[in-house]
Amino acid sequence: MVLKALIFDVDGTLAETETLHLKAMNASFAAEGLKIRWHAALYRQLLQIPGGRNRLRRFLGETLSARDPGALDRLAGELHAGKDRTYRRLLASGALDLRPGVRRLIGEARSVGVRLAIATATSRSNVEALLRNTFGAGALDWFEVVCTVEDAPTRKPAPDAYLEVLSRLDLPGDACLALEDSGAGVGAAAAAGIPVVVTQNQFTEDDAFDDAIAVLSDLGDPDRPYEAIRVPPTGRYPHVDVAQLRHWHMLALQDRAARTAEHAVSADTRAPAPRLAG
Ligand code: XBP
Ligand code: MG
Question: Which contiguous run of DSSP H or E holds residue 117?
Fold first, then answer.
């Protein structure tokens, strides 16, 4: 099976958005007159809870436990909406660029006919704002499928977003490759049968990436190679391009086939000896 499509995660993979979500969250606390401020180490822990609003509601429940649950639900909703407005305003002011190599790899994939898709746990309006303010107007159309929380409400590590993308691309998991930054994202893609490459960041570097083919600092660029955290022993390119991804994808499928064969052999040796007739 050859590589036909790349499926990109958004937050933390296309750009270091979590620093902006965090900044916007703290601005939202301040705008509501709350003294709460999240620092990076706390945010890193909170990111283990899927979804911005859910993690906020959980935090408020523990911090403002004397308040009525209904009031906390409303407060979480207002704070989250305020966070998103500020996040998109910051994006519009040019506060964030793409991670190294992202623009180059997506441009190359488009020019050689590798299909593109997005699988994210954030909202469609956040994705549109990020693409418009980094790649530029019209970039949304480069992605054949854009699956957001509105399309797959059960967030990663559930495989739902990836399964939805595969169904809309009409491709099996082993014809695709996912690019992710978090343990939850790797879990989601792997559960959908899609090989994954990780570009980690300050919020995810302690996550478990056991199911990933390769773990890197970023995609790198010709004048600035990526740092290899864990990569296959053969065929390493200094920066990630389509040829590198095709190579890693092939190794991942070979590894999967070898494991399936090994599993079949061990199941066979465990089976009882066939009875002979007579
Ligand atoms: C990452 C997330 C999101 C963001 C915040 O999504 O977990 O919840 O932290 O976005 P992904 P919201 O990596 O799948 O793109 O506040 O919109 O949830
Ligand atoms: Mg992510």
Answer: strand 115-119
34-72 pLDDT tens trace: 999 999 999 999 999 999 999 999 999 999 988 999 999
Q: Cα–Cα–Cα angle for 220, 223, 224, nearest 5°?
A: 40
Q: Which residues have beta carbons under 5 A from ligand 2 (an ion)?
A: 9, 11-12, 181-182
Q: Could you give phi then psi for residue 9, rounded to 5 degrees?
A: -70, 165
The stretches of 114-193 forming alpha helices (DSSP H) are 124-134, 160-169, 183-191
| C-alpha pair distances (Å), 158 with each of 19, 89, 121, 126, 248 | 24, 30, 10, 21, 24
Ligand 1 centroid – CA 167 distance (Å)? 22
Reported as a single tens digit per residue, the pLDDT across 123-132 is 999 999 999 9
- Span between the terminal Cα atoms of the chain, in Å: 46
- Predicted confidence at residue 264, as pLDDT, reads 82
Cα(23)–Cα(45) distance, integer angstroms: 16
Q: Which residue of 122, 151, 160, 196 sits with most ligand 1 atoms within 8 Å of its CB, as the best mutation to test the pocket?
A: 122
